[in-house]
Design a protein that fits this description.
With 227 residues, the chain is of the alpha/beta class. The protein is built from nine helices and eight strands. The longest helix has 18 residues, at 155-172. The radius of gyration is 17 Å and the shape is globular.
Length: 227
């Protein structure tokens, strides 16, 4: 199999990248591809607004172009999928966005998915994305824990996520949950044990899809801007 998957954290917080890297350990195996996690130095400490999303597109695509000759697939590890379509014009390698991948994975594990968001301001972006994917009828709801990207470590965060997840199950009929930030990776197993439903770490979902693409030899069609 071999090959190399590059997972890019578009914010500049190395601790988030380190957490992502640790969460991907189950997807590394002896004859599998190398999975490298990179931090976008030009990014903000956390991507928490549409302006943050828009601001990282250029630097993110630049990093993909620099890594292109040494990568077989890319994962954009931010739940807003910043620059996903622009990135797909920058390389022939598959580019996976963790939000898109998490949602498509959730559809195979349950009937109605709920999203655990970081901040209330994230919810508008998530809802817009779900509508654009045409999946509003499978969307149970989106609730925030009120914690920013750089504050996601610790047991108190896991407790908040548990409470929000339980509300999505009890009050919104969610039967599968998506963690709405790559920085939540460390809490997946605890949440799944406490809540008794599938809990999706979006970066794991996207990297698993990248592994499948490499295993099956999938490439993407040329994507050149119209002009």
């Amino acid at each position: 199999m071999a090959g190399r998957i590059v997972v890019i954290n578009p914010n500049s917080t190395q601790a988030v990248t380190d957490g992502i890297d640790e969460a991907l350990t189950p997807l590394r195996f002896a004859d599998g591809p190398v999975i490298d996690c990179l931090t976008l130095a030009e990014g903000p400490p956390g991507i928490e607004s549409q302006r943050h999303v828009d601001g990282v597109v250029g630097p993110l695509c630049g990093l993909i172009e620099r890594e292109d000759n040494r990568a077989d697939a890319f994962v954009i590890a931010c739940f807003s999928d910043p620059g996903l379509h622009s990135a797909r014009e920058s390389t022939r390698a598959p580019v996976l966005g963790i939000s898109e991948s998490a949602i498509t994975t959730a559809l195979s594990l349950g009937d109605r998915f709920g999203i655990i968001a970081i901040l209330p301001t994230s919810i508008t972006r998530h809802r817009r994305y779900v509508r654009q994917m045409g999946l509003a009828d499978r969307f149970a709801g989106d609730l925030a824990i009120g914690v920013g990207v750089t504050g996601l470590a610790g047991d108190q965060v896991a407790d908040r996520m548990t409470g929000v997840g339980q509300a999505l199950i009890d009050d919104h009929d969610a039967d599968v949950l998506i963690m709405g930030c790559a920085g939540m990776a460390q809490h997946r197993s605890v949440l799944e044990e406490r809540l008794g439903v599938p809990v999706i770490d979006p970066t794991q979902a996207a990297t698993a899809q990248a592994l499948a693409a490499l295993r099956l030899g999938w490439r993407t069609a040329p994507r050149t801007p119209a002009g």
